[in-house]
Structure formats: C-alpha cells, structure tokens
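Researcher: Go.
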Amino acid sequence: WNTSRSKKNDFNRKYIFSLIQFYHEPNKWLFGGIFQVVKRFDDWAKTGVGYELELIDLHKELIGRLIIDFYRKPGLRGRAFLLENHYKDFTVSEILKKPFDGINFPGYENINIDFPELETVYKFQKNDWKGALENVKGVYVIVDKSNGKKYVGSAYGDFGIWSRWAVYISTGHGFNDELTRLISKNGIEYARQNFRFCLLEYRSMKVDDNIIINRESFWKETLLTRGEFGYNKN
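Model: Structure:
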C-alpha cells in the first residue's frame, strides 16, 4: 500500500507517519514507523509503483509496539491525511513489550478473521495457526463486507487450509474466477478492506476428497452463493 499511487499524489511530503488500524479494539492504531519519500515515479500508472520509501530510524524501536488511541470521525475516509490536523487528538494507549505478531489461534470453530489479520498471521508464520491449518482439509467461506456476497471454497488433496489460504494472501483472489475479476479491477487493497474468512468445516487429511467436495456443494446451496448472493460460478 505504501508504494502504490492513485491519481491523487497522496504522499506529497518528505515524511510519512504510518499507522495501522488495530482491529482488535475500536479506535486503536498500531504504529508502523516513519518513512521518508526518497523518489516519486512518473510512470506509476504503468508500473503500479508511485513511490520509493525508506524507513528512518526515528522511533523505530516502537514499530509494532506503540498503540495510539484515535477516534476517526464518521465520513473520514482515505489512506493519507495531514498529520497536523489529527495529531492533537492522538493519545498513547499502550506500549507492548514486544512487537505485535497477530492474534493467537482461536480454535477451528472460532475462525472468523479479516484479511489484514490473516495477512499478519502469514507474515509472521505463526506456529499455532500453521500447525493447526496445514494438517486439515475443509470448507470455508469468504464474505465481502461491502455487499454481503460470499464465496464458498474448499481445500483437499495434498493441500491443507493453510496452503490454500496462502494463495489468497499473495493474490487477493485465490485464482477463483469471480474474485479474480473483482481484484483485477480494484486491486488487492479491496480484499484487505472487505474480505473476511471463516472456516465452516474441517476434516482430517485422511478423509476422502469427495466428502469435502460434497460438503462444499452443500454450503454453496445453503448460502446461495451461486447466484446473485455470491461469487461462486459452479
């Protein structure tokens, strides 16, 4: 996100003060560092890269540890804001002992996780998540929070849930037809803003693949994801 550019030149200053919404608590933001804009690229429309950024040392030790309390007023949307317009409303909520590395595995029945949270889990290769998900097949649903549409998918064969979801983290769409069209048009940022993952069913890797496929079909029919309510084509 910090190198992409829209028609608006978002990063038109020398420094960027980076905050990440701390999804566990409302109005909490995790400090992501201070970056210097080293270079701006004129061919950003072709390459998708608008800036070259460099992390500076100032407050580097607080990255992933400093949690700021800030209420973002209704209607205040976007990814870049003038710091001086909001800085006075910042208060220090907490300084973690070590950098935040994602939520702990909540149990198979309680997986209901937004894309950015899942992205963090994969970034840090959290052992509790990886150990649990790489050894099970299953059926899952991806909910698009912007419109309520759903996509039901499955993981079977030699690939567990962990491997299957890794593809979504790297692409945003997992190479599913309708999701691919959606992300190709709007970019992976759409997935980060709108997609939520939930594990519907899980089975041992020894279970016959046809059982998983049949359960996937059951959930597609139950949630009506093949029609106007979803992103499944078949």
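Model: Residues 1-9 have pLDDT under 50 and may be disordered.
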